[in-house]
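User: Just a sanity check before I run the rest of the batch. Below are the structure tokens for the first item. I only need the designed sequence back.
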């Protein structure tokens, strides 16, 4: 499993999907908060950085998962 450096405080557990190896799971919005407080980013800058540099950085089957709450399921 690969860790997302600098996001230890956003760790929430492991993500398990059938037929795939377990990966480390992080709270997406806590990661955004970390970027805003640690790196002094605005919310827009933090989201853009997170999407492009963190979530967009696929490093193989052990790439961490980033989980965010959604009010309800669509459909």
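Assistant: Here's the designed sequence for the first item:
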């Amino acid at each position: 499993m690969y860790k997302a450096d600098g996001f230890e405080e956003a760790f929430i557990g492991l993500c398990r999907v059938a037929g795939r190896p377990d990966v480390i799971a992080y709270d997406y919005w806590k990661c955004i908060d970390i970027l805003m407080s640690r790196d002094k980013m605005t919310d827009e800058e933090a989201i853009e950085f997170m999407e492009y540099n963190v979530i967009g950085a696929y490093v193989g089957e052990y790439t961490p998962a980033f989980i965010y709450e959604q009010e309800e399921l669509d459909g």
